[in-house]
Design a protein that fits this description.
The structure is a homodimer.
Chain A: H1 4-17, H2 26-33, H3 40-49, E1 53-56, E2 62-65, H4 74-81, H5 103-120, H6 124-127
Antiparallel strand pairs in A: 1-2
Chain lengths: ~150, ~150
Amino acid sequence: MISPTAEYALRAVVAIAQAGGDAVVTPTLAEITKVPPGYLPKVLQTLRRAGLLISKRGLGGGFTLARAPEQITVIDVVNCVQPIKRIERCPLHIDAHDATLCPLHRRLDEAAEMVMNSFAATTISELLEDSNDGHPPLCKQAKPLNLRRPGKR
Amino acid sequence: MISPTAEYALRAVVAIAQAGGDAVVTPTLAEITKVPPGYLPKVLQTLRRAGLLISKRGLGGGFTLARAPEQITVIDVVNCVQPIKRIERCPLHIDAHDATLCPLHRRLDEAAEMVMNSFAATTISELLEDSNDGHPPLCKQAKPLNLRRPGKR
């Protein structure tokens, strides 16, 4: 449905969001997200360049979200790395008939639109809602992760 | 949303369906569908092996649908070449927590389900409904194609 890269980007954003504002370093993100080591830095840099992440160097550095998780949607993340393609013009390149898609491409475009709307209606904060079993929301780990500093939410 | 191969398969099935029961040869399908020459025979053989197409050799030969276009859905075609993947188990391979997907993967799976349901509810015959301008439905051609033999529907 979405590309592996887009899914990796979503894992990374959710993992950073669930740190509750604390900066998360790449090795920690690699451990949580299980994104292949060669991919993760590229995905993080793409998200940073797109303005979704902030990176800080040095002690206490790492990645944080550039906006609150309530203000980032799934489509924001997906569009950074591999936008869902709408069919706006005839894929058979018949210029004379580009204005109206044929029924086949209209249906395929409707499916793309449906997915885009669903992703646009889902914020990252909604993905943090847990199933109330004390495990982090990204994907429940065998042992709960301790990402937050004591006393911080 | 779907892979190029799946889209090529749909173009081919619609082009064969719009011939109204006449066998269509590969060069004609190549002209109508504009599928890259290297791909089309592979796509057609995949659809034939999956039981969606029948091929006849010799004079008057070519490809026909194995079932009426009312009995073939978009998902039947897509599933032949590149099935839409549902997320049934945790993609992070945490066995202990496979039974319940995390919110992220649940949402992604819901999107896949939504597209599958939409494609399962759309028959090939619905894609043949034209915009009443006399052009074939696949994608309107610059000049109407004469695929049907005189006197045949």
